[in-house]
Amino acid sequence: MSWSPAHPETVFTYGAPQLKFGPGAADEIGHDLGALGATRVLVVTDAGVLATGWPDRVAGVIRESGLEAVVHDSAHVEPTDASLTAAIERARADGPFDGFVAVGGGSAIDTAKAVDLLLTNDGDLMDYVNVPVGGGRAPSRPLAPLVAVPTTTGTGAESTTICVLDVLDLKVKTGISHVRLRPTLAVVDPRLTASQPAGVTASAGMDILCHALESWTARPYTSYDRKQPDERVPYCGSNPISDLWAERSMSLLAKAFRRAVRDGADEAARGEMALAATFAGLGFGNAGVHVPHANAYPVAGRVRDFRPDGYPDDHPMVPHGMAVALTAPEAFRWTFAADPERHLAAARLLDPVGSHGGSGRGGEPRDVLPRVLVDLMRDIGMPNGLSAVGYGPGDVADLVEGSLRQQRLLATAPREVDGAALDGIISRSMQLWD
Amino acid sequence: MSWSPAHPETVFTYGAPQLKFGPGAADEIGHDLGALGATRVLVVTDAGVLATGWPDRVAGVIRESGLEAVVHDSAHVEPTDASLTAAIERARADGPFDGFVAVGGGSAIDTAKAVDLLLTNDGDLMDYVNVPVGGGRAPSRPLAPLVAVPTTTGTGAESTTICVLDVLDLKVKTGISHVRLRPTLAVVDPRLTASQPAGVTASAGMDILCHALESWTARPYTSYDRKQPDERVPYCGSNPISDLWAERSMSLLAKAFRRAVRDGADEAARGEMALAATFAGLGFGNAGVHVPHANAYPVAGRVRDFRPDGYPDDHPMVPHGMAVALTAPEAFRWTFAADPERHLAAARLLDPVGSHGGSGRGGEPRDVLPRVLVDLMRDIGMPNGLSAVGYGPGDVADLVEGSLRQQRLLATAPREVDGAALDGIISRSMQLWD
To answer: Of A75, A426, B133, B292, which cross-links A46 as Cys (Cβ 3.0–4.6 Å)?
Structure first.
């Protein structure tokens, strides 16, 4: 390890929502909101999830418990300052609310966090957005209870304290980050992910895997300088608790990931993937993620005309999990030197019987984990590198520049990241297998 | 498994306090209480812990953050209705308070839960005590933030939603149990356990071990009938999350327990024991404990003249962890049939290299885990069975009767427990090794 702080950190923090997990859990939300003291509840979702019927079903069980419920399909996929402001204004017009439910993916959950924040605290959205883009203000009052009901296995938004948004005028992705934004209760009901097509399961699964693997390999909390209490951040680096969640998430993925992609009706595999997603979220929600997630911003954001299977084909996109995955093998080949044993342990967790490239036969130790990842990506139908989603050698500098903007994420990497390192990782990620 | 419910449970719940862990964590409590909105804080402790200086030091850091702080040594070891009522009345007289800190073992933390409950909600203590002893009333209002600062590694009270008390007139041990009683934040600072004598480390460590082992072997949540949302209890049986904490706790104990007893100055071992205690608490705080903890009530409660090393010698006592441990080997020999693989896995976690009786050489499979436990207990100076703390064959019926009163705990056992089963376990626990 290359870090040698003068006064090493000795303290780590861990926070998580309360959790209700299992088929049927979503039918108890009315009772849970009542126990949390809510009387009038806003259900936040997006138009796509609304069409599945689940948000109205959740509103129904809330009403059966004697509470009022209003449904807004006000979440925008990849929230922007404009979409969040519109969602907040719509909520204010229909308010007051003393409880919130988010039904959907990360976008719906993050939108609900912003709506809850601005309906319980004064000011405007930009007051709370991270500096330098916004005012970086901390909420002065507790938020109302927020129940997060993820419908895609992967984002981990149900466990985190951040709301990610694009500020359109500035063309920048930033966020609002405060411990009060963490949902009160996460309700993970695998029935809500039952309709995921194989391509979505594959991309979302790679997001889960990278949450686990990036928090597992994140810079250790003890490698930072001792923080003052008011300097503590939600992502404190890898620690004994985030390690535990990451390890178990990887073991579940080893067991269930290929099966869940192969057969969407395999309920056991789907349940294990939902658990893996929850565990990975509980881990990275405290440790942080790094290089693959930083790279995913420009890889997704600068898409030209790639249209993946299983997603709406009305616009080009690189799904988030796929964007994360495409540079992961090379990112972990580069981070290997920071802690070889940890990378080899991850390979063993992901490939316990050594049948997927992890047996260590032949090659350098630093190639073992990348080989396990590439073998998996090929099996589940990921594109063969950045070139397969439309990027070429001429795009490397642009992608590096976009990744370098994600300093908040790169700060969690186990080695100091500079442009040259990213250039190498991204260049070598153009094609992942022959 | 002998359970075959008509409609098996599909849902489990998981709750935990936020956590701050590590040397130095206790010095940040003022900041943390401020962030939680507190302005005037009551620090609850007992006379023994007060003498260590830590409660006043904590009150000092609270005042440095600009908050008011008052210290009460109002906790009684093994709280009673009388001691809790006195603590509540003293707090009311010095109130109001909008934040609470407990510095101490389970008794101080449970006392603070009761004080917080009765200062934020109407009524009297007995209104909230579990039926049939009390009124079983649920708190109608949220409690004020409670920061739990354990000074003994073991109790897990910082993670649980219960307050245990003796009702003196009825000579019965009961509790108050509600999710609102769970502390908001647990601050685990291994410096606060640095002065523990070896005998205390040994007994407290056996309590940690039994928390982990009992929640790991507890009746699985899927073996119960499907509950309605308002029937859910804090202890839902073993589940994938409590398993995770229990497993890791056992691995940490395998590494650190003997070292921590042998050398109280071994800081690494002490840190690992504090982490093991925290993890075990997070596990059993959701899954539950069973036979050894049920037996511990009469074993501790009916003591005659045993005086253990490392504890004040002004009165006879069987320390809680020791009382739990003494029937554990025989309890796990009896529960073995419910899930042999799980018992063997526990033996491997506690004795990974097979050097402490867990190698499985010779004997029946059901003897492997008991042999690992007995080997450990001998090494760390536990008494050789119930006879070594003063009980004889003539006491068995009385101990069985006391254990049978703990139906709330016995309900979590992986086999149906009756008097005959307890008679066998207790009789065979009189002497554990030759």
So the answer is: A75
